[in-house]
Amino acid sequence: MKLVHIKEIVVSDEHLDQNNHVNNVQYVHWVEEMAKEHWDILKNSTPYSDDFWVLSDHHIQYKKQVFKGEILTLKTYPEKPEGIRQPRKVEFYRGEELVVDSRTLWILMDSQNLKIRRVPEDWLEKI
């Protein structure tokens, strides 16, 4: 399904904090990276290929610590729009176990006039 984007990351030294587990800020970076990667995959299937998303709200829940050498599977997908906001989930799994859960709200910006672009409620169904 095109509306789901998945990738794996092997945790390395650069991802760790002073406690030798994945730094919370690293998860935030991965959330943003996953959203951008997924949009790059999808945008040419939409009428909004020149437009860009800005983050308006971010919620993240850390359930388990993750350490060097472990493999994380990152899974992202958009949810049904909420007015001008487009929710997106990013889930982090170690094997089958959900270790971090994120939900962000994004706003689409018109690249020509830099104003908010409202997308139709059913726009995801057309991708």
From TrEMBL:
GO molecular function list: thiolester hydrolase activity
Domain Acyl-ACP thioesterase N-terminal hotdog: 10-126
GO biological process: fatty acid biosynthetic process
Matching Pfam families: Acyl-ACP_TE
Domain of life of the native organism: Bacteria
Record InterPro entries: Acyl-ACP_thioesterase_NHD, HotDog_dom_sf
Name of protein: Thioesterase
Organism: Cloacibacterium normanense
